[in-house]
Amino acid sequence: MELLYTSIILRILSNPVANVVQKKLVGTGRDVFRVNFFTYILLGFCCLIYLPLFFNNNYSLKFWEYALIGGFFGAFGNAFLIKALKTGELSVLGPINSYKAVVGLIFGIILLGEIPKIYGLIGMFFVILGSYFVFDTLEEKFTWKIFLRKDVRYRLLALIFTGIEAIFIKKVIVLSSPLASFCVWCWFGALFSFLILFFKSNNVNRKIKPEDISKYILLAVLMGLMQLSTNFVFERMNVGYALSLFQLSTLVSVFLGYRIFHEKEIKKKLVGASIMIFGAILIILQ
Known about the structure:
mainly alpha
């Protein structure tokens, strides 16, 4: 039980701190897709020590299929997230993640025929209400124009892709272990992030600046802690409940956006983020 609680706390803290490092890197002109790739490749190299684990275990074809699909959605989801962080405010983009609960509810209705109960509908209302306070701090306010902003669109895409990724990570864990799932997450993430870099970036061959090495290492450590802790939580909890708990990182994102990037209207954003978290929890409890 102590491992579960520790993993939850690590996940809640490491994710927004990793977002800060990502934002600092791309905010100073670093290529989004290079940041995405180097994060995965550094972790992938570290995981090579666990290769014997895969030689000694005859994992099924389903295991590799799920790992491949999860790697695809994870690499694209992280790329979309970093693109959003490049121009968007951390204290705005963090709370948007609470919409993941609403997205799950909608897909449940469409794909699974799961009709939401009263708690689910009330929860959706609170998520939307909370986002009103957050979006009201932007020039576009809470209108359809908010979706014309690239940072918001990229954050929503990241939300959808990482939400799908979480399902396949859970499937991989069920067929193996949190550690094995982490290794294939790193390796397939590196594969797909390299393909994204190759086809989308003009800076494939550009060398890393010496002053950036420590930042990339720090980012890799934070992302590694984030994903490992996520895996240990997924092993012991339903994905939906876990994703709900992870929304607590929203408050950390708002605070860090204020303290590090001097983002404005912190009180209204904190109120909005708190309401969105409450709504996400209600959706899970339906």
